[in-house]
Design goal:
By secondary structure, the chain is mainly β. It contains two helices and 29 strands.
Length: 346
């Protein structure tokens, strides 16, 4: 009788095993596994998880290095926090890539890179998240590129607490956020290149206790007086670009225009300000050690009430460019930089 029981148990286990999908270097959701988290949990290092269109009401935690999570269609693969889950995708492993999908309605971040190296976020739409759209914290050697952020109550794109960073933020669009881009204690080979920070409350801030070796090059920073955005904690409004507690940084070939407050507010004459076009602001340049009157800002709206983003371009089939920052190729942009990707026109 005991032998029969053991034999039956073996058959049961075998049956369960054979029912599992055949998982290889590419895992398809939901065809093979019903949730993104299920796929992440069983994926081996180096695997690619391809996600079909749908709304995925989950929060994804990645602990396996070398994974790629790729949406089949950027605007139709949606990780929805329903304003009750903290992060859309949290990356807690090295060399992870997140591509071609949308993260929305989270109580903290759309995508969070936490204490990692070698990350990449490409062609991601992050909308209506309570803190940051895409945030790299304590992380190095990464790229945030060709992505879009709106409705962030802190900032659309954020890099914090890295030195040296070796991080490139390039070709992104931020609008209807409290701040378009925020660098906090992010120094050392930190590159912010060719982005559009327009139609926020504040375009860009970069601050550190001792900040150096930051390159802010080729960005459009304009029209940052958008009332239909989440209010910023300190009430700032109408400011283009502000750089605090910094020396020996490069601020070059940016177009800073139509910000009703101050266009550029550097904190030190030791920063290299080269070939910028700063015109049509309430005050074009004011060093931050000059006393300033606090601007009167409109109340703002809740992050989850900010208008939905426009359709964003799909990630091309061609391989993504390498991680090299290539600062020299960025010239002063035109006022219509990435205008086709924006809802707030300059």
């Amino acid at each position: 009788m005991r032998l029969l029981f053991v034999f039956a148990a073996v058959l049961l286990v075998a049956g369960c095993t054979s029912a599992q999908p055949g998982l290889g270097p590419e895992i398809n959701v939901p065809a093979q596994l019903s949730t993104i988290q299920d796929a992440v949990d069983v994926a081996q290092e180096g695997a690619t998880i391809v996600v079909s269109p749908g709304v995925y009401e989950e929060s994804v935690l990645v602990r396996t290095k070398g994974l790629t999570i790729r949406g089949a269609r950027r605007g139709s693969v949606i990780i929805d926090g329903e304003v009750k889950r903290e992060n859309g995708i949290e990356v807690a492993a090295a060399d992870v890539s997140v591509q071609n999908l949308t993260v929305r309605n989270h109580t903290a971040n759309g995508v969070l890179i936490s204490e990692q190296r070698g990350f990449r976020v490409s062609y991601v739409t992050a909308s209506n998240n309570a803190r940051h759209g895409i945030h790299a914290s304590d992380s190095q050697n990464g790229v945030i590129e060709q992505s879009y952020a709106s409705g962030s109550a802190d900032s659309g794109f954020s890099v914090s607490r890295c030195k040296p960073c070796d991080v490139v933020v390039r070709g992104n669009v931020a609008e209807r956020n409290a701040v378009g881009y925020e660098g906090t204690n992010a120094s050392g080979r930190m590159f912010v290149l060719g982005n559009r920070f327009s139609g926020n409350r504040v375009g860009l801030t970069s601050a550190a206790e001792r900040q150096e070796d930051v390159a802010l090059v080729g960005n459009l920073v304009s029209d940052n007086d958008e009332a239909l955005s989440p209010a910023q904690a300190d009430g700032a409004f109408g400011l283009g670009m502000r750089i605090l507690s910094s020396t020996k940084n490069l601020v070059s070939h940016n177009l800073i225009t139509a910000n009703p407050g101050v266009g550029l507010a550097p904190s030190s004459s030791q920063d290299r300000l080269e070939s910028n076009v700063i015109v049509g602001n309430g005050q074009d340049v004011r060093y931050d050690d000059v006393p300033q009157k606090k601007s009167k800002a409109p109340r703002g709206i809740p992050f989850n009430q900010v208008a939905a983003p426009p359709l964003q371009p799909e990630m091309p089939a061609d391989p993504l460019p390498d991680r090299t920052p290539d600062v020299e190729k960025y010239l002063v942009p035109s006022e219509d930089l990435f205008d086709d990707r924006a809802a707030v026109r300059t």
